[in-house]
Amino acid sequence: MDEREALARLADTLPGAGDDCAVVGDRVLTTDMLHETTDFPAGVDRYTAGWRAVGASLSDVAAMGADAEAAVAAYGAPEFDPGEVDDFVRGAREVCAAVDAEYVGGDLDRHDEFTVATTALGETDDPIRRGGADRGDAVCVTGALGRSAAAVRAFEDGDAERGNELFRFTPRVAAGVALRPYATAMMDSSDGLARSLHQLVEASDVSDLGMDITESYVPVDDAVREVFDDAEARREAALFFGEDFELVFTLPSDAVDDAREASPTPISVIGNVTWDGVRMDGEPLPDRGYEHAGE
Amino acid sequence: MDEREALARLADTLPGAGDDCAVVGDRVLTTDMLHETTDFPAGVDRYTAGWRAVGASLSDVAAMGADAEAAVAAYGAPEFDPGEVDDFVRGAREVCAAVDAEYVGGDLDRHDEFTVATTALGETDDPIRRGGADRGDAVCVTGALGRSAAAVRAFEDGDAERGNELFRFTPRVAAGVALRPYATAMMDSSDGLARSLHQLVEASDVSDLGMDITESYVPVDDAVREVFDDAEARREAALFFGEDFELVFTLPSDAVDDAREASPTPISVIGNVTWDGVRMDGEPLPDRGYEHAGE
């Protein structure tokens, strides 16, 4: 059973699964495990690791349209180098501060492989779920895609400074809260744009739902153009690589202007909710995302 | 830097650290990472692993005197065997149900070593911290100690059924809530009784605080007598081994009767808060606990 099948199986049995966070009364709660071989390329420093790991959980809070309250992290490593632990905590605190949340600590565990489990807590009375898209809605994303793919390439090219810079991101909590009155369905883009669109379609109760998007409307991060020479690699980075932590969402098309006004992060309309499957420029868009190494 | 030094260092820099949970408004939040080589002896089944891992975080909620609301777990393993994942989730759900909390899901991660990170959320307006012990208070524990030491021995002896049974425990959430009006300081006994007493003394703002406990008052689990033949091994199991998840707490001595009446779990008074260090039967009790293998 691969990770995706196993997650789908869990979603069937657990009331809170299937969204970016579980909903518990007026709170949302999410947890993620990241580890060295699959999530932190060689060159990622502990400051960036703390920022990114905690940021990934805060992004899940953002995807529910919730205010971010707090985060914790469990840090497993072969050695507890004081400088490394301090750097990790500094990154964790700074990403929390960037979204008005508090980093409130965690656990340390001696582990053969650098492994981090992060948890974030958010608050909302009216969470935005994945399942609310309806025909006629606009399909949108915040910010720009492909930044993490560019970061991984920078690490591969030995430019760790640039890689670390690109690997840190601001979770879209403020945008998620601003979109709360408008969005009908929302998730983050950590699995890649293509797979996110498929997931929003699958989560909807509306039968025969689809999305039609236009490739030239998909916002691509400047770093992608810097780092990748050919068009195919740029396309892969923006559409499929994922790990970008932007928000992918739908909203009634007459609410786009108000949502744009309200959101502190730029919003791009990339298409519409239609019939029967996900298409880009009229062709089926494969339900394919980033596969972690080793899967 | 060992795990303890590193945790102490973190506690100095993080506002929420130093108690069993971080306090976030009217919520408490805690996370723990457990993994195969140090936390799950050979023979632990996935049902027990799910129960115990989630239970460990719920025990931290109990130690704050909070109501338990919800828990999540990140599950890392080399393979996602459907039966194993289901068993883990069943254990996680059942331990949550035992304390009126809800298991709301988690994350799956492909990992070389079986690794679990659990997080629990609780609610209280008035958390019980570690730092409130004062001279004249009674020193108490819930239930009985040594059960986990007995479980590990059962696993070593090849009696996995007995080991698994002893490894599952009911987190003391109901007792923690019942003790909220009375307890001046509280933590769970996961680091062992001796170390817990030292930690309660260190956390107090009162200078020259101490505790005097009487060994014969320390409640020892029946399984310890079953499994260990000699007195020294039994003593080690009850005082130092830890991983037992009972509550260790202090309260004014005139509140003991009311607390006993209120708590659904039996309470044993094992000594008093006094002057200058932790002693048992007049002799200094070493600040020593269970050291995980490999540290």
From TrEMBL, chains A, B:
Q: Name a GO molecular-function annotation.
A: thiamine-phosphate kinase activity
Specify which residues bind Mg(2+) 4 according to the UniProt entry for this protein.
Answer: 20, 30, 60
Please give the pathway this protein is involved in: Cofactor biosynthesis; thiamine diphosphate biosynthesis; thiamine diphosphate from thiamine phosphate: step 1/1
List ligand-binding residues for substrate. 39, 243, 290
The question of whether Transferase is a record keyword is answered with yes
Residue ranges annotated for the PurM-like C-terminal domain, each copy included: 136-276
Entry-linked HAMAP family? TMP_kinase
User: What is the protein's name according to its record?
Assistant: Thiamine-monophosphate kinase
Its source organism is Halobaculum roseum
